[in-house]
Amino acid sequence: MPERPARGRRFDPGAVVTGLLFLAAGAVFLRSGLTGRPVVEMLVFGPVVVAGLGLAGIVHVLTRRRRR
C-alpha cells in the first residue's frame, strides 16, 4: 500500500503573536523574580496582556478569513 506524504501545517500568524506575548510576559515575571523589584506594575501589565490577546485574536480572524 503506497503511503501518502505527510501534510505540513499552515503558518498561523495569530499563534506567533500569542507565543511572543507569552514569552514577553514570562520574561517580565522572570526579571521581576530575579531582581526582587517589579518591572511593570500589575495595573499596567494586566490590560497590556488582555490587549495583546485581543490583537492575537484579531490577527487570527483576519488570516483565517483570507485563507478561505
UniProtKB/TrEMBL annotation:
<feature type="transmembrane region" description="Helical">
    <location>
        <begin position="12"/>
        <end position="30"/>
    </location>
</feature>
<keyword id="KW-0812">Transmembrane</keyword>
<feature type="transmembrane region" description="Helical">
    <location>
        <begin position="42"/>
        <end position="62"/>
    </location>
</feature>
<protein>
    <recommendedName>
        <fullName>DUF3098 domain-containing protein</fullName>
    </recommendedName>
</protein>
<keyword id="KW-0472">Membrane</keyword>
<keyword id="KW-1133">Transmembrane helix</keyword>
